[in-house]
Design a protein that fits this description.
Elements (H helix, E strand, L loop, with lengths): L8 H10 L5 E5 L2 E11 L10 H5 L13 E9 L8 H15 L4 E6 L13 H9 L6 H8 L3 E7 L11 E8 L16 E10 L6 H16 L5 E3 L17 H8 L3 H15 L2 E3 L3 E5 L2 E9 L5 E5 L5 H7 L10 E2 L4 E4 L8 H9 L4 E6 L4 H18 L2 E10 L8 E2 L4 E3 L11 E4 L6 E8 H10 L20
Parallel strand pairs: 3-4, 7-8, 7-16, 8-9, 14-15, 15-16
Antiparallel strand pairs: 1-2, 2-3, 4-6, 5-6, 7-20, 9-11, 10-11, 11-12, 13-14, 16-17, 16-18, 18-19
């Protein structure tokens, strides 16, 4: 917090010059709507009794030490017009990721207590903080920090003398990096992991598209609450909306269902932004240029999205709905891992996932919809094979339950799961997690991407490296 709440352009430029990774902003079409500024310090030089000006060296930032051990947060700001969109939380998440990536001990900051002036005649700072913890008093800054896993380390007096709302006090807060290593790791660089949320979706009649969105947002909210990096929904998860077209034949009904797909995709993009999570939006029918496709959308938490078209349509999709297969297979870059998406039947064609593996895929997402257990077993067994042969994780997400009068989607059998390769670093049965069959539930599982790198180079077997490319190869023709 600068005096007058204003940073000079020259100060921002210097911060970017000396520590570009530590300066983060959110922009909306070129307009900065939120930002977070930080430096690295050798914390032993300052200890727990310091002032804001001590840390920022009177705005000269000579205290920044690339060899220091603590990431010190010097400011976070969100435009009032953009509050309520969890931008502050996302900025904090970026700081945490940076702290882990740089192998720093912790994040420390002096947090304001802007509502303290209302209670300073009744409570000491210590008593005020305790009442905020007990939720008897609401302080927007301190409450936000504690909600983001920061703990109070000490009360600082005269931290920012001109902060009258806080009575010149501040709360020294800290977030500890549990992955911090005193010595360099023996293999690779840093521990790299991803948290995957999988929705096992109950098919149910819905009154309207708004009711459908309520169900979707519930799961996005729930999974993001566990700070997951990804959430995946099943194939044709929007099929309950097709029930309003029961009077039409199935081919007409699914084309009418496709009228909702752009709206659902756009809503998923908003959820990804708002809840800070990458969403694999199951799949939906898309009607374009006179053709009907089955399409999955990756909605990234930075507001961008991309599409993966189902390549192989089933005989029933072709005969009942007149669906057409897509023509592009590719890996998608995300802020956490390189991912691939294969919709249901596509997972049963090993060539596709091998092409994705050659492009560096680390996690394969398989949204599926199967009516009987034998169909489900095809998806499950093939997904497990894809994980082993391509040395990647595979997350499958399916629907359960019944949907009367919706042809091809009237009954569903499913058990969602996350599979791993099969070697010493992974679960003995190569199953990271799995849901309860035929019951609506979610899975949240952590997968270690570093283990994949070790497997590629030093595994008991090396399916990718040991291929006889002198004898055979798989390649795209388009």
């Amino acid at each position: 917090m600068m005096k007058g709440n204003l940073w000079l352009k020259s100060q921002i430029e210097k911060l970017i010059r000396i520590f570009p990774e530590g300066q983060v902003c959110v922009d909306n079409h070129g307009e900065v709507v939120a930002f977070a500024l930080s430096i690295i310090v050798d914390y032993a030089r300052f200890g727990d009794s310091h002032s804001y000006e001590d840390i920022i060296d009177n705005s000269n930032f000579g205290t920044h030490d690339p060899d220091g051990d603590v990431l010190y947060g010097i400011d976070v700001c969100v435009d009032p017009d953009y509050r309520g969109m969890r931008l502050g939380r996302r900025l904090y998440d970026v700081r945490k990721e940076l702290c882990e990536n740089l192998n720093l001990r912790s994040i420390v900051a002096g947090g304001r207590i802007p509502n303290y002036h209302k209670y300073s005649d009744k409570y000491t700072p210590k008593e005020y903080i305790q009442r905020v913890k007990e939720k008897e008093i609401y302080d927007p800054v301190l409450f936000f920090q504690m909600s983001n896993d920061f703990h109070v380390r000490k009360v600082l007096k005269n931290y920012i003398p001109y902060d009258k709302a806080s009575g010149s006090y501040a709360v020294l807060i800290e977030w500890n990096n549990i992955y911090y290593e005193e010595k360099e790791e023996t293999f690779g660089t840093k521990k790299s992991s991803a948290r995957i949320g999988v929705v096992q979706w109950q098919l149910r009649s819905v009154r309207s598209v708004e009711s459908f969105f309520e169900n979707v947002e519930f799961f996005v909210d729930a999974v993001s609450g566990y700070q997951a990096d990804f959430v995946v929904f099943p194939e044709l998860f929007n099929s309950p909306l097709m029930s309003e077209f029961n009077e039409d034949d199935s081919a007409k009904a699914i084309r009418k269902l496709a009228q909702y797909s752009d709206e659902i995709r756009d809503k998923m993009v908003k959820y990804a932004l708002s809840y800070n999570i990458n969403i694999i939006a199951g799949s939906m029918p898309v009607y374009e240029d006179g053709r009907l496709y089955n399409v999955s959308y990756l909605c990234r938490r930075d507001g961008s999205y991309e599409a993966q078209y189902k390549i192989h349509v089933t005989p029933a999709e072709r005969s009942d709905w007149g669906m057409t297969g897509g023509n592009e297979v590719k890996v998608f870059e995300t802020d956490t891992a390189k991912i691939g998406i294969l919709i249901c039947y596509d997972s049963e064609f090993p060539e596709l996932s091998r092409i994705l593996a050659d492009q560096g895929m680390e996690i394969l997402f398989v949204p599926f919809a199967t009516d009987m257990q034998n169909g489900y077993n095809r998806v499950r067994i093939c997904a497990q094979a894809r994980a082993i042969e391509n040395e990647c994780y595979v997350a499958i997400s399916g629907s359960v339950g019944n949907l009367p009068k919706v042809k091809n989607m009237d009954i569903q059998f499913g058990q969602s799961a996350v599979f791993s390769p099969s070697d010493f670093a992974f679960p003995q049965n190569a199953i990271v997690a799995e849901g309860t069959p035929n019951t609506e539930n979610t899975i949240v599982a952590d997968v270690d991407l570093t283990d994949l790198k070790y497997l590629h180079n030093s595994g008991s077997v090396r399916n990718l490296k040991d291929r006889r490319t002198d004898l055979y190869e798989i390649k795209l023709k388009k």
